[in-house]
Amino acid sequence: MRKFLVSLIAVAALGAGAAFAQGGMWAGVSAGYPGAALHFGVDDIAPNLAVRLNAGYNYIGTAGFAIGADVLYDLDVDMGDTPIQVYVGGGVGLGVGSGLALGINAFVGGEFSLASAGLPQGGVFLEVGPAIGIIPTFGFGVTGRLGFNYHF
């Protein structure tokens, strides 16, 4: 069993390394509805596609620790001279607090590059979209985030 676990960890590490090598990465912080989070993302896992992992605190509904994963797709939207990248995405989230919560969300967002402010690796983003709660009860809501990303 021990050899199997070591092999599984090695395969996962090699696979993650290959995914990270395909594009840039970013880390950041966000706050909004329903909570605040730290996140880590990997760009270009496929053309125009990124993946983001979130960990934070939900202060709405089942308040407590929250984790989630999102997929983001870059849209080719002409914003003129404004340095904004527009994207759509969706994901799942799990909350553990006074109870267990599970939901899915979809969003549209944009990230404003801070290169003109002297921070070429930085960006400020805003996302908003619908959310569907599955557990503990089925329901509809809204999700929204304002945050900062640091690309490396």
Description of the structure:
The protein has 152 residues and is mainly beta. It is built from one helix and eight strands; from the N terminus they run H-E-E-E-E-E-E-E-E. Strands 1-2-3-4-5-6-7-8 form an eight-stranded antiparallel beta barrel. Residues 4-22 have low confidence and may be disordered.
How confident overall, as mean pLDDT?
85
Q: How big is the Rg? A: 17 Å
Q: What is the string of SSEs from the N terminus onward?
A: HEEEEEEEE
Largest sheet: 8 strands, antiparallel, barrel
List the helices and strands and how they pair.
Elements lengths: L1 H20 L3 E9 L1 E12 L2 E10 L5 E11 L9 E14 L2 E14 L8 E14 L3 E13 L1
Antiparallel strand pairs: 1-2, 1-8, 2-3, 3-4, 4-5, 5-6, 6-7, 7-8
Short description:
The protein has 152 residues and is mainly beta.
Key terms:
152 residues; mainly beta; 8-stranded antiparallel β-barrel
